[in-house]
Amino acid sequence: MKILIQDATVALPTGLVQTNILVDGERIAAVDAAAHAAADEVISARGLHLLPGVIDDQVHFREPGLTHKEDLTTASRACAKGGVTTYLEMPNTNPTTTTVERLHEKLALAATKSLVNFGFYIGATPGNLEELTAATRTPGIKIFIGSSTGDLLVDEQAALEAIFAETTLPICAHCEDEATVRANAARLAGTHDVADHSRIRDHAAAMIATRRSLDLAFRHQHRFHVLHVSTGDEADVVADHRGLITAEVCPHHLFFSIDDYARLGTLVQMNPSLKTTDDNRRLWQALLDGRIQVIATDHAPHTWEEKQQPYSPGHGGSPSGLPAVENSLALMLNEVNRGRCTLPQVVHWMCDAPARVWDLVGKGRIEVGYDADLVLVDLAKTATIRHAEQETKCRWSPWDGTALTGWPVRTWVLGQEVFRDGKIDDTIRGREAIYDHVRGGYWKTGD
Ligand code: DOR
Fold first, then answer.
1. Which residue of 79, 88, 161, 378 shows the fewest CB atoms closer than 10 Å?
2. What's the whole-model pTM score?
């Protein structure tokens, strides 16, 4: 099947150009195609922008084991609607993805269920080095250096040294120092004030763990990606990347701060916790000047009922995390409209940079031979986020009631249209992402 997308303003690696794109089967066949190139479908896209599909490199899709919160069908529907054509999913499911066998089971499940392309990290434990060295069909290794949802945790120095010394896959980590978090929690024991979440998972906890990880990465010369940076100070230390370090920020750490607990309560309880408006400002600045390369959501759905429980750290209570995968692109397009950043910058942070960090083959750019994972966006469309309209199984959003201008209107996965004007084609299936880890990551391919 050939599709000709005419007259869109296309986000090419060289910049925005009004041109025609020809898709042939799964691939981009021509950029600057003839206006009347033969095609089975011709789409007149004047006034719209064509972007590479978004690659979200940090999501929690809860299958297997936690499917009352989310599953690969509902989550990938949310992706299709949000313009996300590839996701890389975290290992804190039940069972955890900590062996090659479980990794392959997840991949097989996604092949039958996922409407968009997929990949799964393998999780580190204090004793699974053999699995970490045997895994190949994965973007990399995830370490919870501080614990979060679930019981994955590696914070013993010897175990961390061994992982960095003996594995070759790129590593990413949740950086919050476990000892600091525990000491703060003991000091604030018995609290039900959700604002204490940011005092327990405080600035120091994030900084200590990020510095510790960078030290491991530098000494072992190991590629390392700092997940969900939440403080301006971390953004400063990751600037010294030495060709090894990349970093990411989540929309919630750009748009919410500790001031939002009063309005949103446990809906904005997440790990790492919210910090100050000054951190918001500094994280934005770090994105704009390139110290942080990637935007990812950390989509972490919990049911509305779970989130309505009182804040009660260490004693059950409201869990940490929020859903975001279907709104992240719109949130950023709205910022383009507000003049805070440009469309090519958004494409870099959400498409090209994650593809390069994780060595994804054929993804992240509109270029001949690349996969036809595409999203057509209408920068003039205004719509309001509503709980009831969310595709995520938990059916709520911390941005409920927020009007945004700039929305995805059509999404293609490998040349197949999976989303069009509010309708999702749930017969479409994505495919397992392919990694060329020999290529060497973000810094080896220019910037
Ligand atoms: O808030 C969070 N929730 N942060 C994480 O790192 C994990 C996530 C989850 O899985 O719920």
1. 161
2. 0.98
